[in-house]
Amino acid sequence: MKRADAAVLREVQKNARMATKAIDALSGKVYEDDFAMQLSRQAIHYAEIGNRAADKMLEGHVEPCRDNAIEDMMLIGGIHANTLFNTSTSHIAEMVIQGSNRGITQLCRALNANEEAGRYAVEMARELMAFEEKNIEHLKKYL
Q1: Any idea what DSSP says for residue 67?
Q2: pLDDT(42) > 90
Q3: Any idea what the CATH number is for the domain that residue 133 is in?
């Protein structure tokens, strides 16, 4: 596997993993059933994309991203701090939208830095970006 492919797939896996962890941290703070269902569906799809990226990296004999305890603590701590006084559906939807926007930005940066990445890695990144954009549109109704 080319270095550029591995870098893009690593970014896909990392973004999907962080999104899944963020949704898990937020799920206990969501009280609207429809919104909770939307977030659960998103988490499942993020996990599927992340797993496919990890599988492809393993196929190419590349080490997938491992969990980073410090990053996880910072993410979860930030979520808890940001929802300490406001757990409204609108606020949580805004937080998820902001996270999706950050994910899109990181994926664009990874694609631009690895222009020689192969078709599969680019398609995975574009699939995740399209999914993030679709999620943003779905979440706008909760603002």
Answers
A1: P
A2: yes
A3: 1.20.1260.10
